[in-house]
Amino acid sequence: MRKKLGFWVFFWVWFLLNGSSCLGKFIVEKNSLRITAPDSLKNTYECAIGNFGIPQYGGSMTGTVIYPLSNQKSCKNFDDFSISFKSKPGSQPIFILVDRGDCFFTLKAWNAQNAGAAAILIADDKSESLITMDTPEEDADDSRSDYFHKITIPSALINQSLGNSIKKVLSSNKEMVTIILDWKEALPHPDDRVEYEFWTSSNDECGPKCLNQINFLKNFKGAAQILEQKGYTQFTPHYITWFCREELLFTDLCKTQCINLGRYCAPDPEQDFTKGYDGKDVVLQNLRQACFFKIANETGKPWLWWDYVTDFSIRCPMNEQKYTTECANEVIKSLSMDVKEIEKCIGNPDADEENSVLMAEQEAQIGKGSRGDVTILPTLVINNRQYRGKLDKSAVLKAICSGFQETTEPALCLNDDIETNECLQNNGGCWQDKAANITACQDTVRGRVCECPIVQGVMFRGDGYTYCIDPCTIDNGGCWIETQEGKTYTACFNISSEGCACPLGFDGDGVHECEDIDECKTKTACTCSGCKCKNTWGSYECSCSNNLLYLRELDICIGKESDLFVLFFIFFIFDTSIFVAGKNVKTEMNWNMIWVVVLGWVAIGVGGYTIYKYRIRSYMDSEIRSIMVQYMPLDDQVEEHSLVS
What we know:
- With 645 residues, this protein is α+β, with helices and mostly antiparallel strands.
- It folds into six domains: 7-20 and 195-409, 3-Layer(aba) Sandwich (Glutaredoxin); 30-182, 3-Layer(bba) Sandwich (Glucose Oxidase, domain 1), CATH 3.50.30; 422-469, no CATH class; 475-516, no CATH class; 517-558, Laminin; 564-645, no CATH class.
- It contains 14 helices and 27 strands.
- It has a seven-stranded mixed barrel with strand order 1-2-6-5-4-3-7.
- A hairpin with a 5-residue loop joins strand 1 and strand 2.
- Helix 6 packs across helix 9 and helix 12 runs antiparallel to helix 13 (591-628).
């Protein structure tokens, strides 16, 4: 069985033919690694993000490090050594530390994941700058070669000296090493719009990697189009091409793999120059896709690119010999795009001339500013920084959402594609009290966090992983507590700050004493005309003279029909002021707001009438009756008198 030539092996051959002048620099994408224990290692370090698994962009993970006694390079299945890294309930997740060498980075991660590790740290075996851990080239004839698309745990490459320091601490068996992997700043988030690029190829004959890319395009299309149409993102597709050196222009290599006389080339899809499609076929289709985007963008519908590339992959695959210009044009027509405009953009591929679209692509490939050269296919560039990790809808969407400033994320970033609710599995490795249905696991947009909860106003204390306790259950948290008049008040219910705080209605240090505040003496309650104030322990009571009705919310006494209209007028003015203020904030008042205001006025009117009918009218009737009885007896009064006598 013939083993195909790896894509990047071909790339480096091509690079040698082209020379190094066309390339700038490759930048290793990094995230933060913070050691919180022991004190001897406590510091922040850099680590390189692997181009596989799912880095938690915008979030962080905390775990305890283990360096296995056996299989320290993680090249074999840990089941063979009866080793498991599954964290126990209530304990922190486990990060496994392994050594570099002897097998692919992805195989190390795959074995670690199968053994239950939450993340993998790979220590370099030499003193050098950090590198990017990439996926191996697949052999399309080997069904085992697609395992790395199933890796979900994040990975990090650390330098040799840090790895040795961690091993030294762990070898003593006296101290634990706790690490926080932090991706919050792995991607910049300068404003409320995300600019991102997708470097890809129309080649669908590169094994599982191509299949994974096609599936990603299909799955991500809907989200990408929504984000683009609503103005949250600005997307641009790109295509990598190379060029032939002048002395090789007329060789079969350049003739079959290039267009425009060696200016734009791509690898042979089957890595076999004698059969199937050639590299120039790929270049032409890449150019057609780039031109489709250019024309669609000029017509104000750049998101149609996603429809074109997904439809083309379904209708015009290489393995069915449909990867042709005719099939591509049929897809273009089905999307109501002008084929002639796109053909004009493509130009003459046999001419000895530059193509403006592909020339711009070659220039864009070279890194500028904080973004390095694009040399890996496929590659996402988000806010000018290269994304690393699995090409998966939810993972990529999470990365894009981390590119927004906080509170500016679109609603799409708050749906189930982002919030995978890691608390549902093993409670996220956090503390929980099943009997009381209390947990420290909080699922957020940027990942789960283990933080002790607030229950009925009391902030539980603890690390969130192994324990959380109600401080008020142990000697009332050292705070003041007292019972009087059948009521119990405590100062142990502070949410916003540390320590004890006297409850509302009391004043003191919260530890030794809390004295009742007499709101009647301080004149902070029952201040209206005709109001009577009575102090109670921890509170107060208000009433009105002459049996008038007291409204605590407004601190007034009402007893006349005119008071009802004054009250209604107050509500009316208050509601209208809100309406006017809202209009100043947003000049365009929609019909929904108008209906809300109208219904609000109607509700106030009904409420006012109800108060009048059942409160005020009753009071007025009693007043009238008391006056009339002085001049003439009433029927029911005669009956009452006779019953008494």
